[in-house]
Design goal:
250 residues; alpha/beta; Nucleotidyltransferase, domain 5; 2 domains; five-stranded mixed beta sheet; 7 helices; 14 strands; globular; binds beta-D-glucopyranose; kinase activity; transferase; kinase
Amino acid sequence: MNDIGFGIDIGGSGIKGARVNLDNGEFVGDRIKIKTPQPATPDAVADTVAEILDRAGWNGPVGITLPSVIRGQVATTAANIDPSWVGTDVHHLFSRYLGEREVSVLNDADAAGLAEVAFGNPVTKEGAVIFLTFGTGIGSALITDGVLFPNTELGHMFVGKKEAEAKASSAAKDRDGISFKKWAKRVSAVLQEYERLLNPSAFVVGGGISRDHERWVPLLKATAPVVPATLRNRAGIVGAAMAVRAHLAP
Ligand code: BGC
């Protein structure tokens, strides 16, 4: 009998959920995706999460990611979602919409990092790793020998005059209409700044754009090796399902 959990990944454009086989990190059945309601207020988003669970017919524990710092199950930042998330007690919020079941909420990049440790690129398990997701923003997870240091926000570190994510997220690439070559230069500048302060043993790079890793990862210039994540957009959902199974509630 497989061990099955459920994860939900809340992003700026879509809210996605799926049953996850916790033995191998694969989805069981189809992923359900609903457009993120606008404005993406806590109540509107929680209502959409309830709809996904309803459609899936899932009544068990659920792990949920947010692009926010989560401390004591309270969201304390909201960079790419509605500002009204700041100060929201997410445990309380989701209990109101999802009833009496266990819920764990954690940062989206932290969830993706945990999934990558368990089921992704083996490089993620060893040494001092900086795991990054490139999407609307830049998400980060710091992982030492497979153990997460939660809630890092390296996407907001200044690199030159701009925050790293304003310069080198994949949304910044689209916004500025630049080639992979030009974008890789910006990403390299970000990685070099991270190295200056953190000296990781490796970078693992994920997010949707890692699907095209052959086009940009070989162009990156950093001292530590840079390797692509293997779970890509699946990672958030898988990590969320893992978190609630481990009773993690940052
Ligand atoms: C947020 C992070 C998040 C990242 C990726 C950033 O803007 O501050 O919490 O992990 O985007 O979604």
